[in-house]
Write a structure and sequence with these properties.
The complex is a heterodimer of chains A (456) and B (227).
Chain A (H helix, E strand, L loop, with lengths): L20 H13 L4 E2 L13 E3 L20 E3 L8 E3 L3 E3 L9 H14 L2 E3 L7 H6 L2 E6 L8 H5 L3 E5 L11 E2 L6 H7 L7 E2 L9 H15 L6 E6 L3 H10 L4 E5 L8 E2 H6 L4 H14 L7 E5 L5 H10 L3 E4 L1 H7 L5 E4 L2 E4 L1 H6 L32 H25 L13 E3 L2 H7 L18
Helix pairs in contact in A: 2-13, 7-9, 10-13, 11-13
Chain B lengths: L1 E6 L6 H8 L5 E7 L16 E5 L14 E4 L15 E4 L15 E4 L12 E7 L13 E6 L15 E4 L10 E4 L3 H14 L9 E5 L15
Classes of the chains: A alpha/beta (456), B mainly beta (227).
């Protein structure tokens, strides 16, 4: 009851499920502005996810490894199909493609240094390759996107792998977006755009349409780089079974599948929340496609979209992924949505800047405004200094190290000397939805919805 | 001054690309015989060398070219000169779709017609087409110039940024945000120079200028005006 109601008068406060406060706010915001909401980060709605899976640890029927002492291999090799120089990673956890433009140059440098320190790769984004990230990254994946902003043969030749981006999980079917306030002179020059325009990248590649053309495009990239570098094909998760098969047919060394929990620096909310399928459903379809083509172990699978912890990585690997890519988790590690930022060795409060954006730490998704209170997703000359590469790289390194230790903890508990030995048989599902999507039996049963009992 | 000839009959395109990517040791001209529509001929060249392709080329001929001067004595498939950085490519015959897509620099000359999406996503290169261009040409073109001596198809210059288009013949329709503008002295001079470089004889005075009306540069002019 309303605390101000001292008259004992009956107040009817029955909420509507269809028109809850969030929906009313959405309608009234649309009415006030005549423009859909654009925001950053990924889907916020509850989705079936890796949380809905559990591991069956070792017991009498399986033999565990000692948690700390015994060796558990995390080495991961990507691009063994055609590339003469496959990518060798010390851990199966990579940093996802995020653009310079969406992120500051300091952040890109931090990611390169952190990835190098833990022996993994980082990835460029829809804004070309910066010197900061090339120089700080031992292994750098260079994206070939529909926009082709800043794309050039010199950077192609100095990349360690090439990722042809068809789409991303946050917005399969949509191109990149960078609002004018983030198009500063350097970003504008790299993208050949006028300063301050609201940039809407192309959603289709300019020089090919469909999988047969993609085959020739991939051959071109291989010819230019003398068949040295692994070529990844990244798809946003939708018709994943078919898309993965087509990517393999087109000649990919590695397929990257990005589920709808994947992040973005700017996309329409209606797009983020309503297009694509959850990572959990996508990973199973992707593995099915590779099994169907007898490509397990020949074409590697990277899964991304909502990977947060070592448990998530372990579950993705158990389901058949060879590696994962993390985007948003990395941003949170840098300090995204933190109350403070670290500058000159001291913590400073960022609360007033969250307030100006009409939000609070823990809820902020204002990457698109360029006014990131902690200096992560900004091109503002004052704000970007709030993320110092020394601090950022250490935090990301710590995070990746932790995730990897968690991964090996689970692998050892399941009796695996190598994280890549985790398998579907190690998993059970907690919910009927997860059981159906992942085709993993419901815990304590052998039941997979849609299948005969006992069939896998 | 020395010349090398590679006969692609029965050979993979790797042969010619390996040769062009390795140190050229004084070779100034590479002749490619029997290209027979092979894809990806002379892609990623990074040297000032002449490449003469004697026949028809498949997709992406001269893709990502830097410094080289490439002549195709025949027609070219999709994406000829895509993402070219510098140098030149001349197509003696026709060019298929997406000719000069996303080219950052250099000069692409097409003596015949070009297909759909010619100069799509152009980022600074110059393209001169003696014939017609297909629909959706210069879609989302960001910088550089497209000169069309024949006619243009539908939706020319849709979602243009700062690239400028010059058309001598008829334009079937303009795309979103593209508009015809008066030719200035600088435009006449620029067109005359490009025609001279391309070796084509047309009167610069007979061209129209198409550029962006810039009304799509910002999301929505009415946004943030509360009602």
């Amino acid at each position: 009851m309303d605390p101000k109601n001292t008259q004992g008068k009956h107040l009817s406060l029955e909420p509507s499920a269809g028109y809850d406060r969030k929906t009313i706010d959405y309608i009234q915001n649309a009415a006030a502005h005549g423009l859909y909401e654009i925001r950053g980060l990924g889907a916020k709605r509850a989705l079936p996810h890796f949380d809905d899976l559990l591991f069956l640890g070792a017991s009498l029927s399986r033999y565990p490894l000692e948690g700390y002492r015994e060796r558990c291999v995390t080495k991961t090799i990507l691009g063994t199909r055609y590339a003469s120089k496959p990518v060798e990673l010390d851990i199966p956890i990579t940093i996802a493609g995020m653009s310079f433009g969406a992120l500051s140059a300091n952040v890109k440098e931090s990611l390169g240094r952190a990835a190098t320190a833990v022996g993994t790769s980082t990835t460029t984004g829809d804004g070309g390759m910066t010197n900061e990230e090339r120089e700080s990254s031992k292994i750098l994946v260079y994206q070939c996107l529909p926009s082709r902003y800043g794309f050039n043969p010199d950077d192609l030749r100095r990349a360690d792998a090439i990722e042809v981006v068809i789409g991303q999980g946050a917005k399969p079917g949509g191109g990149g977006m960078l609002l004018g306030q983030k198009i500063n002179p350097r970003v504008a020059k790299m993208r050949t755009l006028p300063e301050g325009v609201d940039q809407r990248s192309a959603s289709r590649h300019p020089d090919w349409t469909g999988p047969d053309d993609l085959t020739i495009k991939i051959q071109e990239l291989r010819e230019i780089t003398n068949w040295e570098k692994p070529i990844y094909v990244k798809v946003g998760a939708t018709r994943t079974f078919n898309d993965v098969k087509l990517a393999v047919h087109a000649g990919a060394d590695v397929v990257v599948v990005d589920g709808m929990q994947g992040g973005t620096a700017a996309t329409q909310t209606c797009f983020i929340e309503n297009v694509g399928i959850p990572t959990l459903a996508a990973v199973r379809q992707a593995v099915d496609a590779l099994e169907d083509l007898d490509m397990i172990g020949k074409v590697q699978l990277i899964v991304s979209g909502g990977i947060r912890s070592g448990a998530d990585v372990a579950k993705a690997l158990a389901m058949g992924a060879d590696a994962v890519a993390i985007g948003q988790g990395i941003l949170f590690a840098l300090g995204c949505n933190s109350e403070t930022y670290v500058q000159g060795g001291e913590h400073h409060s960022a609360l007033a800047d969250y307030e100006k954006l009409g939000t609070r730490p823990g809820y902020c998704h204002n990457c698109h405004t360029g006014k990131c209170p902690v200096g992560v997703t900004t091109q503002d000359p004052i704000l970007e200094k709030r993320l110092e590469p020394d601090v950022g790289s250490k935090r990301v390194r710590n995070y990746l190290k932790t995730v990897n230790m968690e991964l090996t903890t689970i692998a050892r508990a399941c009796g695996k000397q190598n994280v890549h030995h985790l398998e579907r048989e190690d998993l059970v599902a907690l919910t009927v939805e997860a059981a159906a999507m992942a085709r993993i039996p419901l815990a304590g049963t052998q039941w997979i919805p849609g299948q005969e009992f006992g069939q896998r | 001054m020395s010349e090398i000839t590679v006969d692609l009959a029965g050979k993979p395109v790797r042969e010619v690309n390996r040769l062009l990517h390795d140190p050229l040791n004084g070779v100034t001209t590479v002749n490619v015989l029997n290209p027979d529509g092979a894809h990806n001929i002379a892609v990623g060249v990074n040297e000032a060398v002449k490449v003469e392709i004697h026949g028809n080329a498949g997709y992406y001929a001269g893709g990502m070219n830097k410094f080289a001067d490439i002549v195709i004595h025949g027609s070219a498939g999709t994406g000829v000169g895509e993402n070219m950085m510098s140098g030149s490519i001349r197509v003696k015959g026709f060019a298929s779709n997406a000719a000069g897509a996303s080219a950052h620099g250099g000069l692409l000359v097409i003596e015949g017609d070009a297909g759909l999406r010619c100069a799509v996503s152009l980022k600074g290169g110059d393209i001169v087409v003696d014939g017609n261009v297909g629909s959706f040409s210069a879609f989302m073109a960001q910088a550089g110039r497209l000169v069309v001596c024949g006619d243009a198809g539908d939706a020319l210059g849709d979602s243009l940024y700062e690239a400028v288009l010059y058309v001598k013949g008829k334009i079937k329709s303009l795309g979103a945000d593209a508009q015809e503008e008066p030719m200035t002295e600088a435009d006449f001079t620029g067109v005359a120079e490009l025609l001279a470089k391309a070796g084509l004889k047309h009167d610069p005075k007979s061209f129209k200028r198409i550029a962006s009306a810039r009304s799509l540069y910002h999301w929505n002019a009415d946004a943030d005006q509360e009602y």
